[in-house]
Amino acid sequence: MLVDGGSSIDTLFRNSLPALKLTPAQLKPYDAQFWGVLPGQSSVPLRQITLPVQFGMPDHFHTEFVNFVVADFDGT
To answer: Which of 2, 58, 64, 65 is disulfide-compatible with 11, CB 3.0–4.6 A?
Structure first.
């Protein structure tokens, strides 16, 4: 998964779905392409999902809901 506070897109890779116990039925439509994840190529995301993400340390943290675009390829 890629989360970057300065980026315009947060990406969740296809092979992350089973580890997060997410099913395709939980994903919502996404109708735009994006560039820059695969060098020199555009990508068409599978779909998108909004998930809670905790930032910080165990003794001082906060949770934000982050919209992830699910990329149609596996991350390493």
So the answer is: 2
Question: Left, alpha or beta for 36 (phi > 0: left; psi -120 to 50: alpha)?
Answer: left
Where residue 59 falls (left for φ over 0; alpha for ψ -120 to 50; beta otherwise) is: alpha
Helix, strand, coil % over all residues of the chain, rounded to 5: 10, 45, 50
- 16-46 pLDDT per residue, tens: 899 999 998 999 998 887 766 666 777 778 8
Token pair for 3: 């989360």
What pLDDT is stored for residue 48 in this prediction? 94
Q: What is the pLDDT of residue 4?
A: 54
